[in-house]
């Protein structure tokens, strides 16, 4: 079975655009979340400092703490906000615009921004807009690592491939990788493989994120993107096709701040949720998503990021022979490959 599939988009749905909140005005919802990220499969994010002729190391700080960069977390959550929102396809621009319906193309006007650009910022031409959501690095103080491994051959996406288009020649959807607890390894080093030493499953990172001036619908979407649903997990980092990068994100604290009441109330306008109170608050806030059974986007995302994954599925890219024999079959044609069977 192919290690990825496409989360469908309802092209009949509008991408709502409106001005971003003014940074010098305190309006809407502001605050901070804290939480944990637990590795369910090996996790690897490249360190920028590498020596030749040795395994590539997961990124650490000067205190030898393993980390997940805040930029990586921001990218993960932004991609989910763009997918579910829906928002513009920020990274899908340029020569492939022709297969993307115009309403989903990059935002360019600071007065007409999709939900993702309002929340995470916009850099376009002479327009520079800081986002209202920011992530700190997630840290693991005493990490354990798996033995070095070779990844299988990993190549860059190919949007020109027929799999990436639907029957109307629009882009097929957002690309997501399935969870897989059967880690796929390679046998030797070449230009398509890497020898890496990933963080082992069972490690826990702590993280925090801040948000300012979010509208109610923006905060609801942010919280859902962070925790998803009990039967779903996130994927992040390198070598996701090989089964790496499955993680569980859990919130441990939420601070909501009403700056208009900061100097007029005993609690200084701050409300804190932890424990059972946090769980109840979260469940209520994200109910519009968790109860939505009509969205093709959420239906596909639930299927692809379901946890635990089925144990009898064989994941792997089809061979050149398969493509030669099935030049026009859809990606779903690989979905019947189970353990003990052949593609």
Order of helices and strands: EEEEHHEEEEEEEEHEEEHHHH
Major β-sheet profile: 6 strands, antiparallel
Number of strands: 15
Beta-strand level of the residues, as a percent range?
15-25%
Instruction: Tell me the domain tally.
Output: 1
Output the radius of gyration. 21 Å
- N- to C-terminal distance: 8 Å
Structural class: alpha+beta
Low-confidence stretches: 338-343
Residues in helices, as a percent range? 10-25%
What would the average pLDDT be, to the nearest integer?
A: 86
Helix count from the secondary structure assignment: 7
* CA-based shape: globular
Write the layout of secondary structure elements.
Layout: E1 4-7, E2 29-39, E3 56-57, E4 66-68, H1 70-84, H2 115-120, E5 121-124, E6 127-130, E7 133-135, E8 138-140, E9 149-150, E10 174-177, E11 195-197, E12 204-214, H3 216-227, E13 234-235, E14 246-257, E15 270-274, H4 275-285, H5 287-290, H6 296-304, H7 320-325
Parallel strand pairs: 3-11
Antiparallel strand pairs: 1-10, 2-12, 2-14, 4-8, 5-6, 7-12, 9-11, 13-14, 14-15
Helix pairs in contact: 1-3
């Amino acid at each position: 079975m192919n290690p990825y599939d496409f989360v469908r988009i309802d092209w009949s749905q509008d991408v709502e655009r409106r001005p971003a909140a003014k940074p010098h005005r305190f309006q809407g919802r502001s605050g901070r979340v804290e939480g944990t990220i637990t590795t369910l499969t090996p996790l690897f994010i490249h360190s920028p400092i590498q020596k030749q002729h040795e395994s590539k190391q997961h990124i650490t700080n000067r205190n030898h703490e393993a980390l997940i960069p805040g930029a990586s977390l921001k990218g993960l959550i932004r991609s989910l906000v763009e997918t579910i929102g829906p928002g513009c396809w920020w990274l899908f621009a340029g020569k492939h615009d022709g297969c993307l319906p115009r309403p989903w193309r990059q935002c360019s006007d600071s007065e007409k921004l999709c939900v993702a650009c309002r929340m995470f910022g916009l850099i376009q031409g002479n327009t520079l807009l800081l986002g209202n959501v920011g992530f700190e690095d997630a840290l693991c103080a005493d990490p354990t690592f798996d033995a070095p491994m070779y990844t299988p051959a990993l190549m860059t996406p190919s949007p020109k491939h027929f799999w990436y288009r639907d029957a109307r020649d629009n882009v097929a959807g957002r690309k997501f990788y399935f969870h897989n607890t059967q880690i796929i390894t390679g046998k030797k080093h070449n230009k398509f493989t890497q020898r890496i030493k990933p963080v082992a499953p069972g490690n826990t990172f702590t993280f925090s994120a801040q948000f300012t001036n979010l509208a109610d619908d923006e905060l609801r979407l942010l919280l859902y993107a962070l925790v998803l649903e009990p039967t779903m997990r996130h994927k992040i980092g390198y070598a996701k096709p090989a089964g790496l990068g499955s993680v569980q994100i859990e919130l441990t604290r939420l601070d909501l701040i009403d700056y208009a009441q900061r100097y007029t109330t005993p609690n200084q306008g701050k409300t804190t949720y932890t424990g059972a109170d946090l769980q109840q608050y979260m469940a209520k806030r994200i109910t519009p998503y968790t109860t939505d059974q009509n969205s093709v986007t959420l239906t596909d995302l639930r299927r692809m990021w379901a946890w635990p994954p089925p144990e009898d599925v064989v994941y792997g890219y089809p061979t050149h022979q398969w493509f030669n024999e099935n030049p026009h079959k859809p990606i779903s044609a690989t979905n019947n490959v189970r353990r003990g069977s052949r593609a």
